[in-house]
Specification:
Subcellular location (chain A): Cytoplasm
Helix content of chain A: 10-25%
Active site (chain A): 88, 197, 199
Distance between the termini of chain A: 13 Å
Largest sheet of chain A: 9 strands, mixed
Order of helices and strands of chain A: EHEEHEHEEEEHEEEH
Main location (chain A): cytoplasm
Subunit structure (chain A): Part of the FGAM synthase complex composed of 1 PurL, 1 PurQ and 2 PurS subunits.
Number of domains of chain A: 1
CATH topology of chain A: Rossmann fold
Strand order of the largest sheet of chain B: 2-1-3
Oligomer: heterodimer
Number of strands of chain B: 3
Radius of gyration of chain B: 16 Å
Catalytic activity (chain A): N(2)-formyl-N(1)-(5-phospho-beta-D-ribosyl)glycinamide + L-glutamine + ATP + H2O = 2-formamido-N(1)-(5-O-phospho-beta-D-ribosyl)acetamidine + L-glutamate + ADP + phosphate + H(+); L-glutamine + H2O = L-glutamate + NH4(+)
Largest sheet of chain B: 3 strands, antiparallel
Number of helices of chain B: 2
Strand content of chain B: 25-35%
Structural class of chain B: alpha+beta
Radius of gyration of chain A: 16 Å
């Protein structure tokens, strides 16, 4: 049986694509590089939108990337059920593309934050989080200046009522996110975005605070193998 | 060339952390009497032709699509110079 193929997107200014690809391979999958200017998903089974500063965060984080040629393919595929995970800048891009509701704004304290963060898993009903248990606390690195999740009151209520809050900051809220939200999913559950970085927490060797990030990759690979 | 201005501001209910930081800095610099500051973006759009109804409809579409994120921001379109 051939390995499940997870696409990893690179925009100009993406930083974490190499770590994401490595994490996919570490979990036993095949990482397929996808290029922003090439409107071709190469038949992948899932897509990882990594973090960084695509297009230098010009205009708004993710605002330019959202219109990249690759996104013209990715947006309808995601709406049709393709599993997509966006971390950090990837989460911002998913919000700008309206694949996820709400927006990510400048941290309440204005500072760029780089630290290890406790995060509580609130939902395992996504293809990216099935290997966790609900209520489980994990530790992942965060590194962002614009991670404050905001949405209007009706959207926020709908997210909470529908179990679409997938991750919440535990301990302290680093950026002023509404309802301590660290990550959310769409209604169907196939699209997940979060500010913390699972791809930086898969190997002890790199000095990661944990290997809790492995759960994301083992979840998606199990899902793809069992399809 | 006709020139159209698009002002983009955060919606009133959205916390403007940068505006607050600016407001807090002003008294330290000797500027008193400022109740609050909100920070936004100004786009100056130069048109090839006149700023007629069709062109303004286009600018509004630009604002909706790219210049503003209407989840968190409002925009106002004003004509600074109508004729080319």
């Amino acid at each position: 049986m051939s390995a499940a193929r997870v696409g990893v997107v690179t925009f100009p200014g993406t930083l974490d694509d190499q770590d994401a690809a490595r994490a996919v391979r570490h979990a036993g999958g095949e990482a397929v590089p996808l290029w922003h200017a090439d409107p071709d998903l190469k038949g992948v089974d899932a897509v990882f939108l990594p973090g960084g500063f695509s297009y230098g965060d010009y205009l708004r984080c993710g605002a330019i990337s959202r219109f990249a040629p690759l996104m013209e393919e990715l947006i309808p595929a995601a709406r049709a059920g393709l599993p997509v995970l966006g971390t950090c800048n990837g989460f911002q891009i998913l919000c700008e593309a309206h694949l996820l509701p709400g927006a990510l704004m400048r941290n309440a304290g204005l500072h760029y934050i780089c630290r290890d963060q406790r995060v509580r898993v609130e939902s395992t009903a996504t293809p990216w989080t099935s290997d966790f248990t609900e209520g489980q606390e994990i530790v992942l690195p965060i590194k962002h200046g614009e991670g404050r999740y905001v949405a209007d009151a009706a959207t926020l209520a709908a997210l909470e009522a529908g179990g679409q809050v997938v991750f919440r900051y535990a301990g302290s809220n680093p950026n002023g996110s509404m309802n301590d939200i660290a990550g959310i999913r769409n209604e169907a559950g196939n699209i997940v975005g979060l500010m913390p970085h699972p791809e930086h927490a898969v190997e002890d060797l790199t000095g990661a605070p944990s290997t809790d990030g492995r759960g994301f990759f083992s979840s998606i690979l199990k899902r793809l193998v069992n399809l | 060339m006709a020139r159209v201005i698009v002002d983009v501001m955060l919606k009133p209910e959205i916390l403007d952390a940068q505006g607050q930081a600016i407001a807090r800095a002003l008294p330290r610099l000797g500027f008193s009497g400022v109740a609050s500051v909100r920070q936004g973006k100004r786009f100056e759009v130069e048109l090839d032709g006149p700023a007629d109804d069709a062109a303004l409809a286009d600018v509004r579409k630009m604002a909706e699509t790219l210049l503003a994120n209407t989840v968190i921001e409002d925009y106002i379109v004003t004509v600074e110079r109508a004729e080319s």
